[in-house]
Amino acid sequence: xxxxxxxxxxxxxxxxxxxxxxxxxxxxxxxxxxxxxxxxxxxxxxxxxxxxxxxxxxxxxxxxxxxxxxxxxxxxxxxxxxxxxxxxxxxxxxxxxxxxxxxxxxxxxxxxxxxxxxxxxxxxxxxxxxxxxxxxxxxxxxxxxxxxxxxxxxxxxxxxxxxxxxxxxxxxxxxxxxxxxxxxxxxxxxxxxxxxxxxxxxxxxxxxxxxxxxxxxxxxxxxxxxxxxxxxxxxxxxxxxxxxxxxxxxxxxxxxxxxxxxxxxxxxxxxxxxxxxxxxxxxxxxxxxxxxxxxxxxxxxxxxxxxxxxxxxxxxxxxxxxxxxxxxxxxxxxxxxxxxxxxxxxxxxxxxxxxxxxxxxxxxxxxxxxxxxxxxxxxxxxxxxxxxxxxxxxxxxxxxxxxxxxxxxxxxxxxxxxxxxxxxxxxxxxxxxxxxxxxxxxxxxxxxxxxxxxxxxxxxxxxxxxxxxxxxxxxxxxxxxxx
Length: 483
Description:
Elements: H1 4-35, H2 44-47, H3 52-58, E1 62-74, H4 83-89, E2 98-113, E3 117-121, H5 122-125, E4 130-134, E5 140-149, E6 154-159, E7 182-187, E8 195-206, E9 217-220, E10 232-234, E11 240-247, E12 258-262, H6 263-271, E13 286-290, H7 293-299, E14 307-312, H8 317-321, E15 328-332, E16 335-336, H9 340-348, E17 355-362, E18 365-372, E19 385-386, E20 396-400, H10 403-409, E21 418-423, E22 439-443, E23 446-447, H11 451-459, E24 464-471, E25 474-481
Antiparallel strand pairs: 1-2, 1-4, 2-3, 3-6, 4-5, 5-6, 7-8, 7-10, 8-9, 9-12, 10-11, 11-12, 13-14, 14-15, 15-16, 15-17, 17-18, 19-20, 20-21, 21-22, 22-23, 22-24, 24-25
């Protein structure tokens, strides 16, 4: 045994020496490799990191849009267009020859179906009399507007292609985006021609931008400038995740904060081409408020998030699902609800007839509910009415407020009434201070439910009119003397 111990120690020492030598040699090699000049690329593909393949795929489906309209006016002082002047002298008073001038707007769009269906911004084609669409290869097509949606600032065009199939892009679910993802913005900024800019997703679900009623926009630092409106925001797989719509800027140029409408909100607008241009959005059937710190503390929530239900309409989807007044809705379809805007956005991305899961906070516990969405009901025979005659709302276009009308216009529905849809700037109604979106509730103490009731009560011979209306959830009153 005494003879074997030295041999054991020798072999053990030799093994440790080999291990240390091998580790040291590799450490030196690693250090040399780290600090030495890397191997030069051997090919052009190794030399560059490029978005060129994505741009080549996307470019043929992105179009330039030229919209024109004719503005006509009389060659006289603007004084004669004043609504007070027209009240006393009538709408027919004028002199001078009418003049016309052509106003043009420039924007971008993207083909989303091979038969020539193009998505763009509503503000690009608003009031357009003629629309021309130019493709990447220089081909020109005339277009007609088949869907307009002011609420989302989106429009859908149909190109007169005579059966020709066009390149198009597919949509990708915007909910798969994460802050930091690469994106490309493609469009026609300043009329320079098709331009591609790159950047990242710098924010999601931005609700402070008043571009869309739903206000849940994608924020990107990819350069977006005037003329980019309506162009696509695409990911590196060449799919559309948003439609570029606005920038934040003090100078009018891009400063790295641009916004796009998420693809989830675009798809229902495109689907409206199958419903004669009518966008069918589902209805939940609740009146709600965002959660405040005080409300969160009162109901026992640890986080200031969600919406509190103020009212549940009878036989509405929420009512049938078991939602109750005082519930706090925390999520819709596994998506967190932070405020009213996020709730409206989530419901707007769903389809009529679809079942969606809700998480509600009730009595200190989370409850799971299932809600079957349906279209909002309307009043039978409910039509627009233009008010006329010697009364204060002459020149206003009104309609009885129903859940359907409220859903279309993006106004709250709580106690009915008659909503003002439009007021001509030269009409008597423009003098009252009332605005489109205001909801007329009473005239001289009489509750108003339909446009016909409003017209009859305004025409009666009074010493004046006391009009009670709702503006953004707040009751107000105006007094108008007899005309």
